[in-house]
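Why does this matter for the project? Reviewers at the last site visit asked to see concrete outputs rather than summary tables. In response, this paragraph embeds two records directly. Each consists of the residue sequence and, immediately after it, the corresponding structure tokens. Nothing has been edited or filtered.
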Amino acid sequence: MNLQQRTEAFVQLGEIINAYLGNSAEENDVNAESIGIYYEKLHLTIEQAFYQNGWFTKDNVLKSLSEIAAMLKRDELETWLKNYEKLKAANSPKNIGIIMAGNIPMVGFHDLLCVLISGNKAIVRLSSQDKILIPLLTDILCSIEPQFQNYIFYTEAPFKSIDAIIATGSNNSARYFEHYFSKHPHIIRKNRNSVAVLDGTESESDFYNLGSDIFTYFGLGCRNVSKLYVPENYQFDAFFRAIYDYNPVVNNKKYGNNYDYNKTIYLLNSEKLLDNGFVLLRQDTSFASPVGVLFYEYYSDKSILENQLTEQKEQLQCVVGKEIKHPAKVNFGETQMPKLWDYADGVDTLNFLLSL
């Protein structure tokens, strides 16, 4: 397959997802007859994903599918790929191992896309938490372009005869990956977190959008805001009022159990908390907060804070704020809407693959 064939197949995959989601049809969208082939499979797989993993609610899976469909729009793909001249050259496919995470639905799709769009073969080890959604998407992709059947393989066995590896996991698993795959070209991703810097000038809509950054996917993604930096003597009343509409999050059994558990532990330890009934605010210097908890920390000088966060950029995926200076700066409400070129950990995955 040449680049045009590969790109066209992904565009059609995006159109099928969009049609399933019920988005308005565009000129090149698939027709109703085509989507009928996949509708039932998508519907049943989404239901099954929730039974296998209680974090993968229907809303969260549909949200992830919506972001994937947005990535696969023709103009988005063309804008992304035009910066990589090497893609146009015909090369022998490399075998690329992908170890996927499972914290949010289909979080490994971008790595798979990079491997396949670059003309390489993907040897995929799925997370035990997310075993059926991505295989369904690749089944649809292979029905669109049957040649992809020779480029996508799933395995639970140790990787053999791979030319490079892309692995995502915790800090502990990353140490294992770095040792085990030390002789292979690799991208090894560790834990990262996202933070928001407030300065007191935020509007109600800013806070509401920040709520999306906090609660989408129950806060389980590296792009979810897990900590707030606020000016000294900051009052949280306006923030709590603006995010109140996100309160149904506590009705999810897994989230609610985490919220109740953490609240109990903190109260037993006489910790000082702010509580609105569905999220706990706790003063803490760490980045990573437990599910149902949002850390906060006071600052006195914004420029000093900016320098501090820049020095800690290897630990941060997104820094949300209005007038914050940081390489990973993101606007309120946009942490879960990455573009194709917003690479995880700031490492250009496609350039890595093209340099092999």
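We now turn to the second protein, recorded in exactly the same manner.
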Amino acid sequence: MNQAKRNEDQEQLLESLKVAIVEIDGDRAREAAQKIIAAGIDPRKAINYSIKEAADTVGQKFDCGDLFLAHLVMVGDLMDEVSTILEKNIPSDQLQRKRVIVIATVQGDVHSVGKNLVAVVLRAAGFGVHDMGVDVASSLIIQKAKEVKADMIALSSLLTTTMPYQKEVIDDLASMGLRSQFKVMIGGGPVTRDYANKIGADGYGKDAFEATEEAKRLLT
């Protein structure tokens, strides 16, 4: 087989994995991942192309209203599964540590949908995400971040009355001498970039996709 033909076949395999993920076809995605490995394609190429392109395509479909939160959750789960298959075939000395994010809705706030969507899209982008749920106290968030050696803490608030708890996490980190250890990103309905700057947050996302781009900017 000449090199041109080999390259064409590899591109088709990478594209087939991307399409299978976008169409949420688990069997086809798993089969494509195994074929990529059998063909000797660098698994990192599949992660950086097929999975990243799939995430971008799904994000565009969500923005256009063609996909909904339930679809994003399924896509995120499938991406996790396929990434695991591929990562098992990367030599340990070449496997980059996955950036870890602890995410929570702050104390006093029980809204979950926006935070859940951010978690799904972050996972789809390749981040390791620990979702602590809603109404989580600052001390518990910081404890978890230390426990999992997180790179970032992401804080959601959907109520103006609970926004001060985003600041509380930042202040608590500073008082504990831990502020430099974690990037802090905030978001939520009433939250603005000006507020993020005012309270000393490192980043802000007005929606799940902007938050993910912000995380990439801050951590990669």
